[in-house]
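Our platform keeps sequence and structure together, in a single record for each protein. Such a record has a labelled line for the sequence and another for the backbone structure tokens. The tokens are whole numbers drawn from a learned vocabulary of local backbone shapes. The remainder of this section carries one protein's record, kept here as part of the documentation:
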Amino acid sequence: MDRETFTETIRAFKHRTPFKPFTVATVSGNRYEVDYPDALAVREGLAIFVGPGRVPVFFDHKGVSEVLGDLSGRGAEAG
């Protein structure tokens, strides 16, 4: 996934109203369910996710294969 698409997609999911959980799938097969918007920080193609257990996970635009969730009904906030 290119850097701009990655950043815009993550921000769109993170900022939709109301927030709904979404999943980030990596090329290595790992999946991370983002269940809280502030559990994820993103900047310039890099993201840090802190999920249950408080173990940080770093992933970047090159390592993400897809972001799973439904963006319909996200309101006016697109990133």
About this structure: Residues 74-79 have pLDDT under 50 and may be disordered. Strands lie at 22-26, 31-34, 40-43, 46-50, 56-60, 64-68. The chain has one domain: 3-68.
